[in-house]
């Protein structure tokens, strides 16, 4: 009798799986799925999202249409709050926001954070920075020409632009100033990455911190030998980036072992460099369908060809890997998290 019951249970499970798949396909058939990009058009997050939007619909049961909606503001905090609190929780909306939003959500740094990063429905990240890097770039005609110049307290300050306090572009600039001794001034408040690129071109600021893939996608000529900018420092990596062997990593520049350890923690979000999440509470079968579609898209030859043409780095991780990374950050010793919180708070 027990064997019969076990066999019957297995049959029920096997029959239920196709039925659930059919239900998901029926739900998505003819639907429109909104992909929220928490930045303006033209930046790195937008380029990645539009590439994903062109292909992921084929991998979601029912093949819904995918519509990109830009929602810039507060360094992507506006979009993250919207996805978590306002967006429909039925599986018809997911989106992308700054890689360090999960860390900011854990720290609750006093900004208007209205989400718990552990409760998002995580789909995955298009990039884990395996073949990419986050860098500080500086106009080649800037007064500061070397790392020694950059650390001179009596020298001219480097003028960097950023999108908003506490976002990647601001936090790493603050790290350079507070922990690595760079003489620099940060001008925050630029609405999105494309506006910040324009500010560098116009000479409003001398540089910024940014993903290499974003520069390659938007301003590839800048990175040519003797191009418009120099790569000064590399973040998010334990070793120098092969393409720019003269640019040290932030960890190399750390003044002591404790600071190096904290820099490694602060750089953890780069492993989820282009994250995507749906709101909390998405029905489990639809959440699973979105998660599987996300990973399948990143193996799709048409998507990979599109990404290569755009010059964007693809090294995906799934939603479970993102959740583990957030758990690691959440379980860091309180004194270390406190120092990181202080660094981010100093960004203003």
The spatial strand order of the largest sheet comes to 2-1-3-10-4-11
Which bin fits the share of residues in helices? Answer: 40-55%
Summed up, the helix count is: 14
Termini Cα gap: 69 Å
Quaternary assembly: single chain
| SSE pattern, N- to C-terminal | HEHEHEHEEHEHEHEHEHHEHHEHH
Biggest beta sheet attributes: 6 strands, mixed
Q: How many domains, as an integer?
A: 2
CATH homologous superfamily of the largest domain, by name? Bordetella uptake gene, domain 1
User: What is the averaged pLDDT score?
Assistant: 89
Describe what you observe in this structure.
The protein has two domains: 24-129 and 272-345, D-Maltodextrin-Binding Protein, domain 2 (3-Layer(aba) Sandwich), CATH 3.40.190.150; 134-268, Periplasmic binding protein-like II (D-Maltodextrin-Binding Protein, domain 2), CATH 3.40.190. The chain is 42% helix and 15% strand. It contains 14 helices and eleven strands. The longest helix has 27 residues, at 2-28. With 348 residues, it is α/β, with parallel strands linked by helices.
Topology:
Layout: H1 2-28, E1 32-37, H2 44-53, E2 65-70, H3 77-85, E3 93-96, H4 101-107, E4 121-125, E5 134-139, H5 147-150, E6 158-161, H6 168-178, E7 184-187, H7 193-202, E8 207-211, H8 212-218, E9 229-235, H9 250-253, H10 257-266, E10 275-278, H11 284-297, H12 301-310, E11 317-318, H13 319-330, H14 334-345
Parallel strand pairs: 1-2, 1-3, 6-7
Antiparallel strand pairs: 3-10, 4-10, 4-11, 5-8, 5-9
Helix pairs in contact: 2-12
């Amino acid at each position: 009798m027990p064997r019969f019951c076990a066999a019957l249970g297995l049959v029920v499970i096997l029959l239920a799986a196709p039925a659930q798949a059919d239900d998901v396909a029926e739900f998505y058939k003819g639907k429109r799925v909104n992909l929220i990009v928490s930045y303006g058009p033209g930046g790195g997050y937008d380029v990645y999202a539009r590439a994903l939007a062109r292909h992921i619909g084929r991998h979601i049961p029912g093949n819904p249409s995918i519509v990109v909606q830009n929602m810039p503001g507060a360094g992507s905090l506006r979009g993250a709050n919207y996805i978590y609190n306002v967006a429909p929780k039925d599986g018809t909306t997911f989106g992308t926001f700054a890689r360090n939003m999960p860390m900011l959500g854990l720290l609750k740094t006093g900004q208007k954070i209205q989400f718990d990063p552990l409760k998002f429905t995580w789909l995955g990240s298009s990039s884990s920075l395996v073949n990419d890097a986050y860098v500080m770039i500086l106009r080649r005609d800037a007064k500061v020409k070397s790392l020694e110049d950059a650390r001179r307290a009596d020298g001219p300050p480097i003028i960097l632009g950023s999108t908003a306090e506490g976002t990647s572009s601001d936090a790493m600039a603050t790290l350079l100033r507070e922990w690595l001794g760079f003489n620099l001034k940060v001008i925050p408040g630029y609405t999105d990455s494309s506006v910040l690129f324009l500010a560098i071109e116009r000479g409003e600021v001398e540089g910024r911190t940014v993903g290499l893939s974003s520069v390659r996608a938007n301003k590839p000529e800048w990175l040519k030998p003797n191009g418009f900018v120099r790569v000064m420092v590399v973040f998010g990596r334990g070793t120098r980036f092969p393409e720019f062997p003269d640019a040290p990593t932030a960890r190399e520049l750390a003044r002591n072992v404790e600071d190096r350890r904290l820099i490694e923690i602060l750089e953890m979000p780069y492993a989820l460099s282009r994250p995507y999440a749906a709101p909390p509470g998405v029905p489990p079968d639809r959440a699973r369908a979105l998660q599987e579609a996300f990973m399948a898209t990143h193996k799709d030859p048409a998507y990979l060809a599109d990404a290569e043409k755009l010059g964007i780095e693809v090294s995906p991780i799934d939603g479970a890997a993102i959740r583990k990374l957030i758990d690691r950050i959440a379980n860091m010793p309180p004194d270390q998290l406190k120092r990181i919180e202080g660094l981010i708070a100093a960004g203003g």
